[in-house]
Design goal:
With 593 residues, the chain is α/β, with parallel strands linked by helices. It folds into 3 domains: 12-167 and 320-333 and 342-398, Rossmann fold (3-Layer(aba) Sandwich); 170-313, Glucose Oxidase, domain 1 (3-Layer(bba) Sandwich), CATH 3.50.30; 448-452 and 494-592, Sandwich (Immunoglobulin-like), CATH 2.60.40. Helix content is 20%, strand content 27%. The protein has 13 helices and 29 strands. The strands form 8 sheets. Strands 8, 9, 11, 12, 13, 15, 16 and 17 form an 8-stranded mixed sheet that branches. Strands 22-29-28-24-26 form a 5-stranded mixed sheet, with no helix packed on it. A 4-stranded parallel sheet has the order 5-6-7-18, sandwiched between helices. It starts with 11 loop residues before the first strand and ends with a strand. The relative contact order is 0.12.
Length: 593
């Protein structure tokens, strides 16, 4: 994406596609077109830089004015993926082409599958992003959708911005009404044509199994498990014992069997509304689900209806870490805190391609120009747009300075003025949120920034274990690794957060950071305060840094001592304050016996 206000009235300024695609996945081609095939690229592009559009909605849901992070930015599109796959060689080529074309920021809403994660210089995104960073091009990537388990985050190279996903203060609810008039507010995006005036037979999927099918498979709406003769015309209740069967698959199974609707009982992704199009659908948690099953077992002819979705505004709490958002620590190294930052990625309204998807469009209505989608793919372009916004004001800032500005000004409270929470309702930690939720307006004036250089990244790679020969071949330079290259030295990379993957109780660890004063006043002084968990001793030296005209840089050290800290990860933060700016550095320290 390139920001240039000299050319007006031009949004999409270029598009490339790639014929031969090999490597990861099946061999395929792009069908000779740069056009979007599934709306993913269209949706994410409009989030990053879409122009302002009044009266936007998805069939009257989420009505309002829609616009991207920086509407004045121009977009160049590189179609590196097909319906079948995203070939590593093509991703590498597309990123290199984008750099040669002169873009300022690259937004990548994709990542290697968790099971095939390569090391930093074997991952095509990682190595291409390194080259981009060398040329001053910022790269923003999604963290992955494999949450809520730990060690699932992808795109963890320190030279990229890794983005987690959060909810927003708008939710979508569809009401389930039972035959006894009990009402449950479920989560979904359904354009149901069912009404309150008529109820339909309600059946538990395990009770409508096809012949020779185990009830446990049928109860989960496993493909081929339902008997159409028993299902037709009914609202079917599916369970979630097989989480590998997605909500979409369950919907298609009951829909193909002739069901009138689907009620899904699961706490998994309950806060992420599923779009079922015209097919009546809603999802409730296990607590409500047990009451519904009790009703089914209490009467000979249970009935229900599912009403169309309504939007709930000013929803609280928000933001909340999305259930699907991949969590840290990073599998390749725990000495870099990943993900970096969090941004809206749940039920995001953005542009849609005007092509019909079977089972997803309401009867007798045209296809919507907008769609509501969820994923870290949607969170990534929010950060891209914010970065472009900062770049448009501070055009001389490097990628690491923009990244630092976003990270040190991130928000760590929700709209109830409490700390951020996760999808389970517990307190969220930095391996879920990164440093917190983006706050683009604050990031314009961060006070201090942490510049990370290409040499820093070379040192990082040396400490990880790459040889000089490999680094020289990859970078085209004559860089030499330090004589002492140890994994524990990674924490000294000049990063706007701190992570120590291993700290024995009896040991201390000192971390060094450098900052640049980018505030409006060349004469300013910052004082450090520390928020640390009980038992973890954190000392900052010096505790006060002073800037004068002609002297805009400073260095400080942070020492961690975990003698009395609890075993496992301890989270906290260090904040520099000058009376105006709060420069917050999050830390994660893993204490071992």
């Amino acid at each position: 994406m390139e920001n240039n206000k000299k050319i007006k009235g031009m949004k999409l300024i270029g598009a490339r596609y790639y014929i031969s695609q090999g490597g990861f996945g099946k061999y395929s081609n792009s069908n000779g077109s740069a056009r979007d095939h599934d709306s993913h690229g269209t949706h994410t592009s409009s989030i990053a830089a879409g122009i302002e559009v009044a009266n936007a909605s998805y069939f009257d849901l989420a009505q309002g004015t829609a616009k991207g992070g920086l509407p004045s930015a121009r977009i160049a599109v590189y179609k590196a993926c097909t319906v079948d796959n995203c070939a590593g060689s093509t991703i590498l080529k597309a990123i290199d082409d984008a750099v040669k074309d002169g873009v300022d920021i690259i937004s990548i809403s994709l990542g290697m599958e968790l099971l095939v994660q390569a090391d930093f210089l074997s991952d095509p995104i990682g190595i291409a992003a390194f080259h981009a960073n060398q040329m001053g091009v910022m790269v923003v990537c999604s963290a992955g959708n494999s949450g809520p388990e730990q060690y699932t985050v992808v795109n963890t190279a320190p030279w990229v911005v890794t983005v987690a996903a959060s909810s927003i203060d708008r939710d979508f609810k569809s009401t389930l009404i039972l035959g006894n008039n009990a009402t449950f507010n479920g989560s979904s995006i359904t354009l149901s044509n069912l009404t309150i005036s008529r109820k339909y037979p309600l059946a538990y999927a395990g009770d409508v199994a096809s012949e020779f099918t185990p009830p446990i498979e049928a109860s989960n709406c496993y493909p081929g498990s339902l008997d159409p003769k028993k299902v037709v015309g009914k609202i079917v209740v599916c369970a979630s014992n097989y989480p590998s069967i997605s909500r979409k698959i369950k919907m298609l199974v009951v829909q193909d069997a002739g069901a009138r609707g689907l009620l899904y009982i699961s706490d998994i992704e309950k806060g992420v509304p599923f779009d079922s199009g015209a097919f009546p659908y809603t999802q409730v948690g296990q607590v409500d689900g047990s009451q519904i099953l009790k009703y089914i077992n209490s009467t000979k002819k249970p009935t229900a209806t599912i009403l169309s979705t309504v939007a709930v505004q000013r929803y609280k709490p928000a933001p909340v870490v999305a259930d699907f958002s991949s969590r840290g620590p990073g599998e390749l190294t725990e000495n870099i805190l990943k993900p970096d930052i969090m941004a809206p990625g749940v039920a995001i309204l953005a542009a849609n391609i005007l092509e019909s998807v079977p089972g997803q469009d309401p009867v007798a209505k045209e296809i919507s120009k907008f769609a509501i989608k969820s994923g870290t793919s949607m969170a990534c372009p929010h950060v891209t747009g914010a970065a472009a916004f900062i770049k448009s004001i501070h055009y001389k800032w490097t990628p690491s300075m923009i990244k630092s500005a976003l990270m040190t000004t991130a928000t760590v409270a929700d709209n109830m003025r409490r700390g951020l929470t996760n999808s389970s309702g517990g307190t969220a930690n930095p391996h879920e949120t990164g440093v917190g939720e983006i706050s683009p307006l604050k990031a314009i004036d961060p006070g201090l920034v942490f510049p990370t250089t290409t040499e820093d990244y070379f040192h990082f790679l040396c400490h990880v274990g790459y040889t000089e020969k490999t680094l020289r071949s990859m970078s085209g330079t004559m860089f030499k690794c330090p004589k002492v290259s140890l994994d524990k030295l990674i924490s000294d990379i000049n990063y706007p957060s701190i992570s120590i993957g291993k700290l024995k109780r009896n040991h201390k660890k000192r971390v060094t950071r450098h900052v640049i004063n980018v505030g409006s006043s060349p004469n300013s002084s910052y004082t450090a305060t520390v928020s640390a968990p009980k038992g973890l001793r954190v000392n900052v030296f010096p505790k006060k840094i002073v800037f004068h005209k002609g002297s805009s840089t400073a260095t400080f050290n942070v020492t961690f001592h975990g003698k009395q800290a609890k075993k496992g990860y301890n989270y906290g933060s260090l904040t520099w304050f000058d009376g105006l700016h709060n420069v917050r550095i999050v830390f994660a320290v893993n204490i071992e016996e």
